Amino acid sequence: VQLVESGGGLVQPGASLRLSCAASGFTFSRSTMSWYRQAPGKERELVATITSAGGSTNYADSVKGRFTISRDNAKNTVYLQMNSLKPEDTALFYCYAHTPRYWGQGTQVTVSS
Hints:
The protein is an all-beta fold and 113 residues long. Helices cover 0% and strands 50% of the residues. It has no helices and eleven strands. It has strands at 2-6, 9-11, 17-24, 33-38, 45-50, 57-59, 67-72, 77-82, 91-97, 102-103, 107-111. The strands form two sheets. Strands 2, 4, 5, 6, 9, 10 and 11 form a seven-stranded mixed β-sheet that branches. Strands 1-3-8-7 form a four-stranded antiparallel β-sheet, with no helix packed on it. Strand 5 and strand 6 form a beta hairpin. It is globular. The mean pLDDT is 97.
């Protein structure tokens, strides 16, 4: 099993980023997928979740209206589109596959002027 995140970086407040998580080694189309994040000194928190066929999504209150989770089962990839980024969004973002229970290595997002 492998989950490889990409797309993080350093951006200014108000900017956008799109994170990608490429999956392999399991049946991606059958797994609910989530994005989590962990800021320095804080616990890891759930950001967004999407069901296996993409029919249902859920978001943390702090990102509703700004972030969008999506997936392409033909490409075994889940995405997180992040708009209107704020300094408080600065964190290490992780991809998580619910079936099997597996974490990616994370990609850093830093929002700073």
